[in-house]
Write a structure and sequence with these properties.
Blueprint: H1 2-22, H2 25-28, H3 32-52, H4 56-74, H5 79-83, H6 85-101, H7 110-130, H8 145-163, H9 167-192, H10 194-197, H11 201-230, H12 240-249, E1 254-261, H13 264-271, H14 273-288, E2 295-300, E3 303-309, H15 313-329, E4 332-333, E5 364-365, E6 369-375, H16 383-399, E7 405-407
Parallel strand pairs: 6-7
Antiparallel strand pairs: 1-3, 1-6, 2-3, 4-5
Helix pairs in contact: 1-9, 1-11, 3-4, 3-11, 4-6, 4-7, 4-11, 6-7, 6-8, 6-9, 8-9, 9-11, 13-14
Length: 410
């Protein structure tokens, strides 16, 4: 849950600022053509960034914003434009959520071609409605259909975020929320028709909400690029580049601990690299929960680093020992093919004898770690020197038999 909340912070800030701007005099102070120009610039930047990061889904979403919503807002004030409002309110959330849910693929794949063909069909439908040539008028639809479509879209994107709390998933949710506010403004214009079309603030508000949707997607791409650069994709921990950046910024009193999985090569040789990857993720999850304010990093291979800012080595030592002991006591279960990620609920004993001859029980391994820690102080003044001192303490722990913590003397 903390990861989901952290992912939602940037979209929430953008939406809050947009809501404030819409309900203040700030929006009316900017001419609508200038807002549209900014919107188109952000859409182009988002599309190019998505293309560069090979995020085809975000590129398609930018095209949807550009062809459906930006084009729709550019016709504000026209009677035919108002006529399409209900239809767009129905199609846009479903189309957006459908694109967000589908597995990513290249822009030239059959999946992408199908989505663009679907988008072309929607544009043809909107064009027919604008020209009043649609056989079935949208007014015959129930008034709650667009609201239901929007609710379905939000549920789909929320489910996507819950299953995989990535920056892009949070961006999809924020963008769809901004689109919901845009469509709400459009429906309000439809309800008031001439009265609203004579005003300036409402068309500006529609453009501002579209701009918020584009900005949210752009920020999600930036956060994804940051993750590529500073996060380890296997374990989810900050990577070596993030560690180097933290070491350049750190000052004052701190402790650095180097952590190494014991006999990791043996695990890879006996059980394969897939099990080795599972072991790395398993250890990383436990290192993430270290107490005393420690922050875990993937150093490389089977080695990790822990940084304790503002702590002494005497204060950190007991927490490292408790962490080492918890890893040694908890068995590491090999995840077989088809094995569920969550443990099934424990059933109460029924008094019957357990069945034999069925599938073999899941295999477990005992993993241990060796740790070496050093603090800044005395002759050890630079972060590089502290890392070297912690590394030497780690090797002393391994030579002493592994599965232990060695604290370097200051």
């Amino acid at each position: 849950m903390p990861t989901v909340i952290r992912r939602l912070v940037p979209p929430a800030i953008v939406l809050a600022v947009t809501a404030w701007a819409v309900h203040s005099d700030l929006v009316t102070a900017v001419p609508t053509p200038r807002l549209r120009l900014v919107l188109h610039g952000v859409l182009v930047a988002t599309f190019l960034f998505a293309w560069r990061l090979r995020s085809a889904r975000t590129a398609r979403a930018t095209v949807i914003l550009g062809l459906l919503t930006a084009w729709f807002s550019s016709g504000a004030g026209d009677e035919a434009w108002v006529r399409t409002g209900l239809l767009v309110s129905l199609l846009l959330p479903l189309d957006f959520a459908f694109t967000a849910w589908w597995r990513d693929a290249s822009l030239g794949s059959r999946r992408s071609i199908f989505l663009f063909a679907l988008l072309a069909a929607e544009l043809a439908l909107l064009r027919a409605r604008m020209l009043d040539r649609l056989p079935v008028a949208p007014e015959t639809m129930a008034a709650w259909w667009p609201t239901a479509a929007l609710a379905v879209g939000l549920v789909v994107v929320l489910l996507r975020l819950a299953l995989r709390p990535t920056p892009l998933a949070a961006g999809w949710l924020g963008a769809l929320t901004a689109l919901a506010m845009h469509l709400h403004t459009v429906r309000a214009m439809e309800a008031r028709e001439g009265l609203a079309l004579e005003t300036v603030a409402v068309p500006q508000a529609t453009v501002v909400w579209l701009l918020a949707a584009a900005v949210v997607l752009l920020l999600a791409l930036v956060e994804r690029a940051f993750g590529f650069a500073f996060e380890d994709t296997l374990t989810g921990l900050p990577g070596r580049r993030a560690l180097d950046q933290r070491l350049r910024e750190i000052g004052g009193r701190y402790v650095i601990a180097m952590v190494d999985i014991d006999h990791f090569k043996r695990v890879n040789d006996r059980h394969g690299h897939d099990v080795g990857d599972q072991a790395l993720r398993w250890v990383a999850r436990r290192l993430r929960r270290v107490a005393a304010g420690g922050v875990a990093f993937r150093y490389g291979g089977e080695e990790f680093a822990l940084i304790f800012a503002g702590k002494s080595i005497q204060a950190v030592g007991p927490h490292l020992e408790a962490l080492r002991e918890s890893i040694a006591k908890e068995p590491f279960t090999l995840r077989a093919a088809g094995r569920p990620r969550k443990k099934p609920p424990v059933k109460k004993p029924s008094g019957k004898k357990p069945k034999t001859g069925g599938r073999a029980q899941a295999r477990t391994l005992k993993l241990t770690v060796s740790m070496g820690a050093a603090a800044r102080g005395g002759q050890v003044r630079t972060p590089e020197a502290v890392v070297q001192a912690a590394d030497r303490a780690l090797y002393r722990a391994k030579r002493a038999g592994r599965n232990r913590v060695v604290l370097a003397k200051s």
